[in-house]
Hints:
heterodimer, A: mainly beta, seven-stranded mixed sheet, four-stranded antiparallel sheet, B: mainly beta, six-stranded mixed sheet, five-stranded antiparallel sheet
Amino acid sequence: DTGVSQNPRHKITKRGQNVTFRCDPISEHNRLYWYRQTLGQGPEFLTYFQNEAQLEKSRLLSDRFSAERPKGSFSTLEIQRTEQGDSAMYLCASSLVEGDRPYGYTFGSGTRLTVV
Amino acid sequence: GENVEQHPSTLSVQEGDSAVIKCTYSDSASNYFPWYKQELGKRPQLIIDIRSNVGEKKDQRIAVTLNKTAKHFSLHITETQPEDSAVYFCAASLSGYSTLTFGKGTMLLVSP
């Protein structure tokens, strides 16, 4: 296991199309996070999962966005009816939580989405 | 919600000089403060972190200080090298495993 893996690395889509991204976390990690990063900004939190349960969603996550983690392992982020404003880097991160101790909050390399 | 301000937005230093990046946060309940380094086109990588029960932490050329009363924390890089050139982000969290609120980043340029 070499870290958090995201696919695809790049995605170009036409406005109005649906896109889906995948994240494979570090296998022993039980928390998975999605962030969005636009040029010149820090990552912004979108949502996170504890195992298969989606525990928190940001107000940035409009109803066009949906995330799943069906078996508590990999996760998908889908954007429906894409808009040009959705163009960004979508970052996934994972961590292990045991008691009150966190371990290894690690980011993937991201999926860069361009909506044309 | 939490708000994190980061300064400066760009910082240019000569190789061997020290660099300091400062962040302030708004939520006094935040208790975990990581720093990430992001090179162009690459993932953010954790370089150091500090928890609210500690005032300072050091790891070789990198140190972080935390002032809970003033709600600010700083990253110090000594003996800078050209490979330190990157964008650095500070972040704050209500716990070590919760969501992170990031600053807008500081582009550090280290000239040989």
